Amino acid sequence: MSRLARLLVFAFGGGVMAVAFVLAVLDLPHFGTHEHLYRDLAVPAAVQHGTANVVSAVNFDQRAVDTFGEESILIASVVGAAALLRPSSEETEQRVPDLGRTLEGTRLIGYVLLPVTLVLGVDLVLHGGTTPGGGFQGGVILATGIHLLYVAGSYPALDRLRPVTMFEIADSVGAAAFAVIGLIGLASTGAFLGDFLPYGDFGQILSTGTVQVLSGVVGVEVVGGMVVLLSSFFEQEITVRAEDS
Fold it and tell me: pLDDT tens across 6-19, in order?
């Protein structure tokens, strides 16, 4: 595609987005108004479905189809980044250079925070329907906790103890599970991603129907995708070099 053609495509897409944005802003409630749709509609709907965390109720129940789109964007972004960062024919892999010794204080803090961060991430995923958090936040924290091993130790240690293939599978399984749950909801309720599980006692982990299940599969997909993405950047920066360098 020529430079002119790219500019024309960008101008068309940007113009459509600009018009849509202006129309959306003009239709917003006036500043200081007492009209709050999320307060008036989302909160009662969350309580009715036994979900104490209204944000998770919105993400995984009331607008779960939008969340499915966001999850699809995430996995597409990971695939795209991994494809762009793969070694080219002009690049070769080299041994990881010894960049020096990690400070003992850094090692101590990293090794102490690593299990704490992992526990916090799991807690956020498992309690996404009852307390602030959820699959997206917990998945990012879990991926961060895994890479504290690099901060506290070295890249070879991280490379040995972080099986990228397993996280690639987790990324795919998490995204596929979200779609499968949506299809089960379609068959059970007539609506894609409709909540088909029973509700329990308000405030309990298993009281939220499919909200907690979807939060869990999103956590699996996010931690898998983030680890794969970071591993691609690490490999490109640390182990891949151009042949003439």
Answer: 999 999 999 999 99
